[in-house]
Write the structure tokens for this entry.
Amino acid sequence: MKRTSFILTILFITVSIFYQGAKVYGYDLEGIYIAPKVVYSPENPSGRIWNHYAGGGVSVGFDLFRLKEPFPIPVRVELEYIGRVLTTNTRNTIHTVTAGIYYDLNLFHVRSSELDTLTTKSVYTIKRPFMAIYLGLNVGARIGYVTDEPTAAGNTNIGLRQIRTGTSTTTLYAGIGGGFAFHVTSWFTLDLGYRFVIGQQAMFGYKSAHDVLLSFRFTKP
């Protein structure tokens, strides 16, 4: 719990620095977004054994396509935290902290009557894409944690005091994937993605795993 709170605090501080900087220096923050996420992660540690994790997290990112000068760039960068718990044993948890970069293939709705008058640049700067197909790369740390069974540590006025201990290990997390982003409004995007993950063998080690993510992206209008 302390580890999760620390990571979320870092994300909150990051957002605060961006917003405070905008007020002091006057730069435009159009394109910064916060994205709560829900994740399902089946992993294959060895042979035919599969572990199924479920969890959630949040990311803070910046969409360079929102920059109109000198020209829009269909790239997003973000910092992400996700926590997962093993569905068959809630004492096993996994936390990942990653930096990611995404390339967006934006799709626009253009009327036939506009084909002779709109240039590519004017489409990018005037129109809003109704959806995007993207590819992404994430690299960071994977922290696995196992909580031991509680043990009695002595008597108090209200009975036995339970103490929980655990063991953790940190390994490399690297994932590549893609997905679909549906721009419901100018400030809200529904994002469905998939990520193939590889990492080091360890106590929670895996040779490969999968992340299926549902994100709710809120962008500064």
